[in-house]
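Hi team,

As requested, here is the filled-out complex form for the 5'-O-(acetylsulfamoyl)adenosine run. I kept the field names the same as last time so the parser does not choke. Let me know if anything looks off before we queue the next batch.

— J.
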Amino acid sequence: MSPDTSSSMMDDLLHETRVFEPSDEFKAQANINDPAIYEKELADPEAFWAGFAEELDWNKKWDRVLQWDPPHAKWFVGARMNACYNCVDRHADGALGDKIAILFEGEPGDTLTLTYKELKREVCKAANVLKKLGVVKGDRIAIYMPMIPEAAIAMLACARIGAVHSVVFGGFSADSLSDRINDQQAKLVITADGGYRRGSIFALKPTVDQALGVSPSIENVLVVRRGEGDCAWTDGRDHWWHELMAEARDECEPEWCDSEDMLFVLYTSGTTGKPKGIVHTTGGYMVHAYATSKWVFDLKDSDIFWCTADVGWITGHSYIVYGPLANGATVLMYEGVPNHPEQDRFWRIIEKHKVTVFYTAPTAIRSFMRWGEKWPDGCDLSSLRLLGSVGEPINPEAWIWYHENIGKKRCPIVDTWWQTETGGIMITPLPGITATKPGLATRPFPGIAAEILNETGEKIGVGGGLLAITSPWPGMLRGIYGDMDRYVDTYWSKWDKGTYFPGDGAKRDAQGYFWILGRVDDVLNVSGHRIGTMEVEGALVDHHEVAESAVVGKKHEVKGQAVAAFVTLKEGIEASLEKETELRNHVAKKIGAIAKPDSIIFTAELPKTRSGKIMRRLLRDVAEGRALGDTTTLTDPAVVDQLKEKYKDD
Ligand code: 7RM
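And here is what came back:
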């Protein structure tokens, strides 16, 4: 499949001539402001990354920076370090001990701060709790939590003792949770009774209980009390976090891990029905997260950094926890939604806590646009100095709105392209150097080699094609948990074994800037969340009345893409509005609310080519209203036949 270069987004970009230079004032104070850095690092990328590695603390130094047997890389070979030590101890025990590490605001308005010293004590206690429950180095721990400080503490506690954490987004269903637990045979789950969302408590513990019915590897469940504490309890298996924390010692030696020891597994959707457990290791990942936080977010001692992602996604791992804390930054963590109690909640938080660097997703920006300027206009946003965007292509209109209404035309915007698999930011402006253009992620971060290739691997200097990363980088995934073949097939087999295929289409302009166009495979991006069409299809056919289904993405003003499902019901089952609701809810129950189709179109049969391939372009045109006016007529086999005739040359 080739990227959709005919989209209106592309047209916008083709006409995008506005250029925004960083101000002299911003440049002067930036952590990196010398454009020559791009040439310097090109000469010796390994030395470039090693320079950042020198700024972290290692228990034993590396023998070699990189060992590359394509497509398998080892970074900082032979070195030993601890990710938690680098995020916590070195600041707690140094000059930043009394600096706030985590600044938490709960949705009801409660706040909590943890200095680096306090964070160290909490993390040590949590690490001792894990040890007491029998967790040892290399064990896998599932974390299924709301956005509360304990989520970060739990991750860091795992890292401290060399256990592998796997955070599962709190919006995922019991089935999704048990699949992820079973895939890696996790031993323990850390969860909460519930968390606040839109003004009330959403329960998490009952979902864990349900998941554990089919996840026998779990021996213990640690439960943080965030809600009313009134959940069902399995004695012997379930433990209150606060009870065990109260008895735990607040000192715990960090486990010195090999640079290539696994730090975490994070599941992400791909083109098959089964999510992939993306494996990240210790040393290289930490260097990448540290370096990009320092240069892209220009972190200073005085900054209050707010990344609005959930810790259940890679953005939360790298830019709430590991990157900013390794930099000794103050990180703001917010539990709830942006429109509770009102649509200005984010701006109130920025005003109240004097947030300086703000990192969010285009889908959120488009919601803010819809809600109107009056909400940010009513707040003092003068503390802001830098803005970021991540998760999906940002349309120029949203970029300009963000620039004008949130950045007040003062703040550079860094549009950062990267993936769960890349571990850290890959293509991005450097705010003290890069002249930005709305909608463009601009240039590869120094030390990263990106190209645009065509299907056969020829380089495209200027123009559109497939994005490729042509040399290894420290934060790169090291594998798919338990499936090395799939790792090689998915990412390193499109061209040669040393070239990474991210699955995105992109275009490069005459200046060498990259425009990321979005996925070219069967992965949707709904509100910045990756959803595999096959996963949703699997959830639909799991329903006893569904014969067959096909899922495509359709353009959505706020979400970017929405899930559009086509369903053929079994013989004798009537299509109805009730059936549509039932099936939509079935998907939410199987996967989670984020995967719920916006619409279901019932069809007499799915349109397929003679070789049996679903005609997806036809379905996309139907879903977006181009092929037919009234889409419900797909229940008439004659209409399906007519359409197939029309699209047969695809
Ligand atoms: C960090 C994250 C990855 C996919 C990726 C792209 C899309 C992310 C941008 C973007 C255009 C961006 N990880 N994507 N950032 N597209 N511009 N700045 O989102 O694994 O969840 O998703 O998201 O398609 O392949 S992710």
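Two things worth flagging: Residues 102 and 419 are 25 Å apart (CA to CA). Confidence is low (pLDDT under 50) at residues 1-6.

Thanks,
J.
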